[in-house]
Amino acid sequence: MSDTTATLSTFAKDIHSGLASNPKYLSSKYFYDEKGDQLFQSIMNLEEYYLTRCEFEIFDQQKAEILKSFLANDTSFKLVELGAGDGTKTKILLKHFTNEGVDFSYSPIDISQHVLDILSDDLKKSIPKLQVNAIQGDYFDALAKLNENHFQKEVVLFLGSNIGNFSNGSAPKFLKRLGDNLSSGDLLFIGFDLMKDPNVILSAYNDKLGVTKEFNINLLRRINNELGANFNLESFEHFPTYDPITGETKSHLISNRAQEVFIEATGETYSFDAWEAIHTEVSQKYSLKSIRQFAEQAGFKVVRNFTDKNNYYVDSLWQK
Ligand code: AVJ
Questions:
Q1: Which residues does the UniProt record annotate as the domain Histidine-specific methyltransferase SAM-dependent (predicted)?
Q2: What's the CA-to-centroid distance between 1 and ligand 1, angstroms?
C-alpha cells in the first residue's frame, strides 16, 4: 500500500489487510451501513432465519421465570444491553418487568447514537413508565463507567447470538473482559445458537429470497461507495458452509472469474483467481457443553439455561 497509509481510515486499512492476505477475508463488523442494517432487519423476518423467532419464543413463554432468575434474592436491578438494536425482542421483557412493578432501569449501550435515539423515542411511547438511560460508545468503556458507581445488581444482556461473530479463539477473551467489568453477583444473559440439523443451519444463511446473499454482497457495495472501489457485484457468489464437528458456520464471497479490483482509498489493485474466496463472517454454533466451558473459562457460573421448544437456541444466564 502507498505511503499515505497514516491518513487512511481504519476501514480502508482493514479492507486492505484482508484483501492483501492469502486467503482473503473481510470483517463482518463492516456489514452494517444503513443498507446493511435494513437487510439484517429483513433477514430477521425470513422464514429460514429461525434465530430471532427462537429468542422471541423464549422471552414470550418464559418471561416470568426469567424475571425470577434476574431478581433471585434482590428487589431491584440495573438492566444493561450490549448492542441494543431496535429492541423488538427486549421489549417483551421490559413490558413484563414494568407490568410486574419491578424496580429496575434499562441502559442500552450502542456505538450508534442514531440507533439509541430511535430506541429511546420508541420506548418513551410504548413503555412510558420505563426509566431509560442510553449510553453511546464502546461496550467496555460503558460497562467500566457503570461499574464505578455500583450500588445495584447489574444484569447484562448480550442477545441474538451476536457472540457467534467471534471466533472460538477470540470469544473467551471477549467474555473474560466482559466479566472483568462486572462485580461479584452480577448476571450476564447471553444468547447462543445451538448445533442442530446442518440443513436447517445452512438454509438460515442461504435463504430462498436471496436476502442473505444481498447482505453479504452489500459489503462490496459499501467498499465501492465509501472507498471508491470498482467491485463488479455480479461477479461474486454467496457461499455459506457449516462444519458439524466444530459448529463453525462461515460465509464467503467467491469470485466467479479471474479479475482485478482497484480501490481508490488504498491506491491498490487486488487480483482474484477464478473461484477464489473471500471469508466474510463466522456465525458459530454451540453445544450446551461448550457453553458451560466458555462460562467457566471466563470466570462465570451457569445459573440456568432457557431453551426454545425445538432446542435450537439457548439464552444462558451466567453469574459472576
Ligand atoms: C447478528 C451475528 C447473529 O450470524 O446469524 C445473519 C448475522 N449474518 N445472516 C448471524 C447474520 C447472516 C447474525 N448475527
A1: 11-319
A2: 31
